[in-house]
Design brief:
79% of the residues lie in helices and 0% in strands. The longest helix has 16 residues, at 10-25. It has one domain (3-45). The chain contains 3 helices and no strands. The chain is an all-alpha fold.
């Protein structure tokens, strides 16, 4: 394992991804965010 790999924190990475997706959705409530995730999932599942 390289020093760079040792510094990588999976939990922080996942939290940052979720934070960025929440911002992209423009949701103000958890229900709006869930609806956004559902529509995004449907877009990609049809491909």
């Amino acid at each position: 394992m390289t020093p760079k790999e040792k510094k990588f924190d999976c939990i922080k990475f996942k939290e940052k991804l979720q934070e960025n997706l929440w911002k992209k959705s423009g949701a103000t409530t958890l229900d709006e965010y869930a609806a956004f995730l559902k529509t995004e999932h449907l877009k990609f599942s049809r491909v």
